[in-house]
Amino acid sequence: MNNGNMTGYNSQNIAALRDVIDRTAQSVAEKVVTRLHDEIIRPIANAWYAPEAIEFFTKFAETVKNTGVNIREIFDSFRQAVEKAGSIWAENTGGEAPVLGSISDVNLNLSVSEIQGKDSAGNVYIDEAAANNVANNLANVEEEIKSDMQAVASELDASTAFLGQGQSEAVAECFVKINLEIHLIFKFLTEGDLSLQAQITSAVNKYKEVSVGIKTGFQQSE
Fold first, then answer.
1. Residue 56 reports pLDDT greater than 60
2. Is the pLDDT of residue 94 over 90?
3. Beta bridge partner(s), residue 163
4. How many CA atoms lie within 13 A of 88 on its CB side?
5. How far apart are CA 45 and CA 54, in angstroms?
6. How many CA atoms lie within 13 A of 69 on its CB side?
7. How far apart (Å, rounded) are the C-alpha atoms in residues 206 and 98?
8. Quick check: helix, strand or coil at residue 5?
9. For 139, what's the count of Cα atoms within 13 Å in the CB-facing half-sphere?
10. Is residue 2 predicted with pLDDT exceeding 70?
11. How far apart are CA 158 and CA 123, in angstroms?
12. Mean pLDDT over residues 190-209, rounded?
């Protein structure tokens, strides 16, 4: 047991970190997808019915999926760093070098099937207020996901694997990179001409212009 004065490592416990890291990676994926679905996809599905809404969020789902690939690489790089650290301890102590297998795929499969081209009555429309509520809540959703990541970080306890000198505390640094990847998801939604807010504004303005044009056309034909 680490009494606070020990400095060293435990090869068996380091090797066991592989499964802990893998479970943490999968937990990250689950929490991210759940937040995105429940707080973005589900509410926007009740606010915007149009084929172009399907097109936008299909692209968004691809962005999320690609982020899963990047997150898996981050966790696997971390796994390699842990394995290397154990090997360094083994070289310097004559002890056993731990072996950690690769991390499983991290699948961020975000379902956007609830977003439809028309509602049950056949209407194609956007509810401006409801859609803007979703867009305006994006920063809060990102912060909630980051908070989830902090909770998940506790699963990466390495205190029984690396003994003393702040070694185990360095584990949490992995999540800095993960949070950066999560921010890239929200950049797609919040920045530039193709952002969700821009798409909503464009759709609202376009639909208004179309309706005014049709109204004017009818009036002129009377």
1. yes
2. yes
3. 8
4. 8
5. 9
6. 5
7. 61
8. coil
9. 4
10. no
11. 55
12. 81
Decide if 166 contacts 5 (C-beta within 8 A): no
Q: How large is the average pLDDT for residues 159-183?
A: 72
Amino acid at site 141: V
How far apart are alpha carbons 127 and 200 in whole angstroms? 9
Average pLDDT of span 113-120: 96
Burial bucket for residue 57 (CB in 10 Å: 0-12, 13-18, 19+)? buried
Which H or E element spans position 213?
A: helix 196-221
Is it the case that residue 48 has pLDDT exceeding 90? yes
Which amino acid would we find at residue 76?
Answer: D
Percent helix / strand / coil, the chain, rounded to 5: 70, 5, 25
Taking CA atoms, 70 is separated from 136, 208, 213, in Å, by 27, 40, 46
Angle at 52 between CA 42 and CA 212, to 5 degrees: 110
Q: What's the half-sphere exposure (Cβ side, CA atoms, 13 Å) at 108?
A: 26
Q: Two tokens at 59?
A: 């692209």
> What is this structure's pTM?
0.82
For the chain, give the mean pLDDT: 85
pLDDT the model gives residue 168: 66
Q: What is the pLDDT of residue 207?
A: 83
CA 162 to chain centre: 29
Say if CB 66 and CB 187 are below 8 A apart: no
Whether 123 shows a pLDDT value over 60: the answer reads yes
**The two structure tokens encoding residue 190:** 């919040």
Structure tokens at 188: 């797609």
Whether the per-residue pLDDT at 192 is higher than 80: the answer is no
Report yes or no: 127 and 47 within 8 Å, Cβ to Cβ.
yes
